[in-house]
Specification:
Length: 151
């Protein structure tokens, strides 16, 4: 059985850093996804209180620590207007799905090849991912959600 919510383990100066819990979840994702299926994430901004598009996205934490292929991560490095617009659209999709999951967003993520979601719990109030996926890793700081195929 997966334990319920616990107090986050972030310190007061950790607004832009990964916690031990997030790193542990990312490491578990590496084991859960040996096929390297695409991963979406809500860890998209330089600060938890910032929201796309009004933030800087210069981090690659999930890709770097778990060796995963990400839907989009580090999108502030986009060099053309076209890639910036596409990256912004994908960032918004990931963010929207992480704060208010819905069937249309799941279908779009699935069509793009996303099978996993890394969730920074500081950036969402969603605890139950039914019927969109199953939480397979849960700790005070992060979720790993295995997405279900859309119906």
């Amino acid at each position: 059985m997966i334990p319920g919510p616990q107090a986050p383990t972030f310190g007061p100066s950790d607004a832009n850093s990964l916690s031990r819990g997030q790193i542990a979840a990312i490491r578990e994702l590496e084991q859960l996804n040996p096929e390297r299926n695409l991963v979406a994430s809500n860890f998209l901004c330089d600060r938890p209180e910032a929201l796309p598009p009004d933030c800087v996205d210069i981090q690659f934490p999930v890709a770097a620590l778990a060796g995963q292929r990400m839907l989009v991560e580090g999108s502030s490095y986009s060099v053309t207007d076209e890639t910036r617009a596409l990256a912004q659209d994908l960032r918004q999709l990931q963010h929207s799905f992480s704060v208010a999951p819905d069937a249309a967003s799941l279908a779009r993520l699935w069509d793009l090849g996303v099978r996993w979601l890394f969730v920074d719990r500081r950036r969402t109030l969603v605890e139950d991912w039914t019927p969109f996926g199953e939480v397979v890793v849960r700790n005070p700081d992060a979720f790993i959600v295995q997405l279900d195929a859309p119906i």
